[in-house]
Design a protein that fits this description.
Blueprint: E1 2-7, E2 15-20, E3 28-38, H1 40-46, E4 56-57, E5 61-69, E6 81-84, H2 94-97, E7 112-118, E8 123-127, E9 136-140, E10 144-146, H3 162-174, E11 181-185, H4 189-201, E12 205-210, H5 216-222, E13 226-229, H6 234-240, E14 247-252, H7 257-265, E15 267-275, H8 289-295, E16 298-301, H9 309-321, E17 331-335, H10 340-349, E18 354-358
Parallel strand pairs: 4-8, 11-12, 11-14, 12-13, 14-15, 15-16, 17-18
Antiparallel strand pairs: 1-2, 1-4, 2-7, 3-5, 3-9, 3-18, 5-6, 6-10, 7-8
Length: about 350
Amino acid sequence: MVQALISRGVDSELELADVDLGPTEPGHVRVSIRGAGVCHSDLSMINGVLAPSFPLILGHEATGVVTEVGEGVSRVRAGDHVVLNWSPPCRECWFCQQDEPWLCTTNEGIASVPRGKLADGTDTHLTLGVGGLAEEVLVTENAVIPVPAELPLAEAALLGCAVLTGVGAVRNNANVRPGQTVAVVGLGGVGLSVILGAKLAGAGRIVALDINEDKADLAKTAGATDFVVSDKAAPKAVRAVTEGRGVDVAFECVGRSAAIRTAWSSTRRGGRVVTLGLGARDDQVSFTGLELFHFGRTLSSSIYGTADPDKDVPVLAQAVLDGSLDLDALITHRIALADAPQAFDRLVRGDGGRSLVVFD
């Protein structure tokens, strides 16, 4: 039995429970968790935006040490340090064959998978196939990515979701060039990672936007040059610091129609808008035909940073080791598993950056 943070249904109280994950089957890897981030996608699992099965073991952004491998596993062995991949590609479907593993059909629409049992025999399910807010996970071989042993392991959990998503969007979607101007709407873990990515890319001006003024210092620490309160007047304020034009690229990291409109209106003619936030299906965004034509902007989404985690996570790990990527800039709370419910409360309020659950 291992302890895990579970939800029994939409808007239910989160609780710690003992879970039996079962034996290590062929092709599977057992990992002792060292660090796990509390991500907004986890919140979407329990507030009704997504529709997982319950009881649900929460968490998908995690790292740990391999303790056991099943028959046939060749990617890792016991003792290896790994980042978990919540969207492992099959490498065989049409999208994978087109070098678009972030669109792999084997992961499309999957919010949870069954694995494990509670002490009373009730079947449990894993968030995005991981269930990382637990002392231990049991995942398929393609869901682990080896990383160097010298990498700070707990903090490296953020490479598995927030950082890969944010930095990936900067590199793979927007292709931000040195000297370009960038706006980032929403300063949770992903938004702060976008700032880190824009800084790495050499952006000339990075304007951070959030409804919470308390995040100004957090944004500046990550590399933002300006902070703007995200309200109806925000696009005008962004244009004021970009010679009246608006930014070259705006990233929306909230998943709400109002935030998408803010990003859109903060972008110059001919600029690009990239959405990273996971929105609700009934929250519609509207544009007039005239503005689409006149402004010549492009609007696209970034799923998992439009990245190939097997290739991109090791690159990000090296950036951490050489000091060019500072994961500490994203973390505002280091907590124990028992304190994770309070981290979800902070997500609801929009307080702080990433909460990192650290396991001894």
